[in-house]
Amino acid sequence: MPKIVDHEKQKEKIAEAVWNVIHRDGLEQCTVRNVAKEAGLSAGSMRHYFPHQSELFIYSMRLVANRVKTRIENMTFNGTPAENVKQLLFQLMPLDEERKLEMEAWYAFTAKSLSDPELKPLRKEMNEGIYSACKSAVEMLVKTEKKTGIDVLKETEHLYALVDGLALHLIMAPERLTAERIDTVLAGYLRSLE
């Protein structure tokens, strides 16, 4: 009897192999051969799922977005509005090994999208999603606290830059920027909106 293969699980396994290769060796080493080896597949099998490298990268980027979305959907919010927002924003930061792999892959893909026209639309879509999450967070805090005189668009840009910057610095200098420090910095900013 032929072996039944879950094609979606296989594609996820390949995408995770991409993340591991990026983490260990960098994006330039994400060749079909290296990713196939990491995933425990033949190069031919991998090409069956992803005939072109850009398709592999797009799938890998979408998987990052889907995992973040799933984590957020599975959250329970029972703290103050600022605590809830902070917990939501933590899902966008590399605070554990899974999120670190996702974030490293995201930054590598973002850099590649500057020269790969097939990746640009997805980069734009994902950036807009993060911006939208930051805007919703600011709007919720302002509305909940009935605060007046807050420029929501300006504060959205502040929060978006803060989230992006903290995530990048946690990847680049984990020995300097700890999860506790991120918590303190983000909590301080969110309190300014209360």
Automatic annotation (TrEMBL):
<feature type="domain" description="HTH tetR-type">
    <location>
        <begin position="8"/>
        <end position="68"/>
    </location>
</feature>
<feature type="DNA-binding region" description="H-T-H motif">
    <location>
        <begin position="31"/>
        <end position="50"/>
    </location>
</feature>
<dbReference type="InterPro" id="IPR036271">
    <property type="entry name" value="Tet_transcr_reg_TetR-rel_C_sf"/>
</dbReference>
<dbReference type="InterPro" id="IPR039538">
    <property type="entry name" value="BetI_C"/>
</dbReference>
<dbReference type="InterPro" id="IPR001647">
    <property type="entry name" value="HTH_TetR"/>
</dbReference>
<dbReference type="GO" id="GO:0003677">
    <property type="term" value="F:DNA binding"/>
</dbReference>
<dbReference type="Pfam" id="PF13977">
    <property type="entry name" value="TetR_C_6"/>
</dbReference>
<keyword id="KW-0238">DNA-binding</keyword>
<keyword id="KW-0804">Transcription</keyword>
<dbReference type="Pfam" id="PF00440">
    <property type="entry name" value="TetR_N"/>
</dbReference>
<keyword id="KW-0678">Repressor</keyword>
<dbReference type="InterPro" id="IPR009057">
    <property type="entry name" value="Homeodomain-like_sf"/>
</dbReference>
<keyword id="KW-0805">Transcription regulation</keyword>
<protein>
    <submittedName>
        <fullName>TetR/AcrR family transcriptional regulator</fullName>
    </submittedName>
</protein>
